[in-house]
Amino acid sequence: MVSPKLRSKSFRRTYVKLPSGKSKIHYNEKKNGSAKCQICNRPLQAVPTNKVNNLSKSEKRPQRVFGGVLCHECVENLIKQAVRGNS
Question: How far apart, in whole angstroms, are the C-alpha atoms of residue 46 and residue 43?
């Protein structure tokens, strides 16, 4: 029987073929995807993907406006539009 911690769906099941010809299930933890910009959907830089729970709040995202949500180009465009009066 599988141990109780591996029964959860948070573990990815991969079927591995053994040299004997049998197949066996390996349980792997799912990896987090990279953070993406909410406007242009580009991956964000300076935002870690794995083991975020062990990091402090300042290490999880950049210290600027919309840090960890929008990329620098989209923030730049938003600020330009706000200054020019376009909304």
Answer: 10
Domain positions in the chain: 1-30, 32-87
Radius of gyration over every alpha carbon of the chain, rounded to an integer in angstroms: 21
The secondary structure element, H or E, covering residue 28 is strand 23-29
CA dihedral 58, 50, 43, 59 (to 10 degrees): 10
Q: Is the dihedral of CA 63, 47, 75, 36 positive or negative?
A: negative
Quick one: pLDDT at residue 87?
58
Residue type, 8: S
Model pLDDT for residues 60-70, shown as the tens digit of each residue: 888 888 988 99
**Residue holding tokens 């200054």?**
83
